[in-house]
């Protein structure tokens, strides 16, 4: 969660956004939505943005039960 506090994290998932309501993670359902949110967070542009894609994020991020 420290990472989510310091960086803008956008999670593309089918998991309901309410599961992340106590975090600062931006939850979306599609890649197009993720790009839209990224642009909103970066004054409309993603040209100079540093990005990390984690296609198997469930294997690299902690699971909360």
Walk me through what this model shows.
The protein is of the alpha+beta class and 65 residues long. It has one domain (2-58). The chain is built from two helices and two strands, in the order H-E-E-H. It has helices at residues 2-6, 31-41, and strands at 10-12, 26-28. It has a two-stranded parallel sheet. The protein starts with a helix and ends in a 24-residue tail after the last helix. The model has no long low-confidence stretch (mean pLDDT 85). InterPro entries: LarA-like_C (IPR043166).
Task: List descriptors.
65 residues; alpha+beta; globular; LarA-like_C
Shape: globular
**Mean pLDDT reading:** 85
Count of domain modules:
1
Secondary structure tally, helices: 2
> How far apart are the first and last residues' alpha carbons, in Å?
15 Å
Report on the biggest sheet.
Answer: 2 strands, parallel
**Strand/helix succession:** HEEH
Q: Give the low-confidence spans.
A: none
Please give the radius of gyration in angstroms. 12 Å
Give the percentage of residues in beta strands. 5-15%
Instruction: Give the beta-strand count.
Output: 2
What is the helix fraction of residues, given as a range? 10-25%
User: Which strands sit side by side, in order, in the main sheet?
Assistant: 1-2
Structural class: alpha+beta
In short:
The protein is of the alpha+beta class and 65 residues long. It is built from two helices and two strands, in the order H-E-E-H.
